[in-house]
Design goal:
The chain is an alpha/beta fold. The protein is built from 14 helices and 8 strands. The N and C termini lie close together (7 Å).
Length: 326
């Protein structure tokens, strides 16, 4: 590997049993999980898929899993490479994963603070996505197919409800979020209009994230973040809200708290993020955290780039061997 970047998985990638083999195989990962506490270890190692889908459970669990996989990879590369391993030249995180990226880059000081913020974020997002009667207000679906066709179906399905394209993941995948009834219409239209070539896949999340439905959560997060102090990035970080580098201007870096508040209710520009990374000469992108969704997106966006992932002991060993022998 020459220039590599780390990308952190987001909500929706969670799976039962995530992190258990890393906990058993990696002292560094074990330290992260132990620090996070028994409730998160139980959620990651023992909870079923339905429990893990609940936002207030998912977000702290996935954040911890991301940080544990990152710690395990750093530990393995440092000990396995003859001359040590260079640090990543950039980091980014998908949605919730951006909090792990901010922690890795030193914007969020440590795991303890990161978990505090993520827990507050999850509670606020759950509240914003819940109707007064306790039912779920919003939903999300992946639109698989041409982006213009997906956006066209969004416009047809909205009918006065909230419905927006919110995650621009790859040329062939655009995630849609909004009121549950509007998501149902979108899915029905995709099924009926087969000539458009769009397939709608429901996502395992409990709200319409990155949509205007999250505005109350953004307001609450703005208040919650006032008690924290954030640092400047020690590693280059690419932002969801722009798909570009978090860079200073003549006034310095934009406040990190403002970025987090915007991100919770704004689209994720993931395709732009990967494209911006590879324009700098990055040739390897390693996803850390549950699943390999971002690895698959990298292969679709930039097939010439080496895409790897670390989510368990086996994938950790595979990446470590790739580093040492290539």
């Amino acid at each position: 590997m020459n220039k590599y970047a780390i990308v952190f998985a987001g909500q929706g990638a969670q799976k039962p049993g995530m992190g258990k083999s890393l906990y058993e195989a990696s002292p560094a990962a074990r330290a992260v999980f132990d620090h996070a506490g028994e409730d998160i270890k139980h959620a990651c190692f023992e909870a079923d898929a339905e429990t893990l889908k609940q936002t207030e459970v998912t977000q702290p669990a996935v954040y911890t899993m991301d940080m544990a996989a990152y710690a395990a990879l750093h530990e393995a590369l440092k000990s396995g490479a003859p001359d040590g391993a260079p640090e990543p030249v950039a980091v980014a995180g998908f949605s919730l994963g951006e909090y792990a990226a901010f922690t890795a880059a030193g914007i969020i000081e440590n795991l303890t603070i990161g978990l505090e913020i993520v827990r507050q974020r999850s509670v606020l997002m759950k509240a914003a996505g819940t109707n007064p009667d306790g039912s779920r207000r919003g939903a999300m679906a992946a639109g698989i197919g041409d982006r213009d066709a997906v956006v066209s179906l969004v416009e047809k399905a909205r009918e006065g409800d909230v419905l927006e394209a919110v995650n621009f993941n790859s040329p062939g995948q655009t995630v849609v979020a909004g009121d549950a009834s509007a998501i149902e219409r979108f899915s029905a239209l995709a099924s009926e209009n087969r000539l458009l070539g769009v397939k709608a896949i429901p996502l395992p999340v409990s709200g319409a994230f990155h949509s205007p439905i999250m505005r109350p959560a953004a307001d609450g997060l703005a208040l919650a973040l006032q008690k924290y102090t954030f640092g400047e990035p020690k590693l280059p970080v690419y932002l969801n809200i722009t798909g570009s580098l978090y860079a200073a201007d003549e006034n310095g870096f934009a406040p990190a708290a403002e970025i987090m508040v915007r991100q919770i209710q704004s689209p994720v520009h993931w395709q732009k993020t990967i494209e911006a990374m590879i324009r700098t000469g990055i040739d390897t992108i390693i996803e850390v955290g549950p699943g390999k969704t971002l690895t698959g997106l990298t292969k679709k966006i930039a097939p010439e780039v080496t895409a790897l992932h670390v989510e368990d002991a086996a994938s950790l060993e595979e990446v470590t061997k790739s580093w040492i022998y290539n």
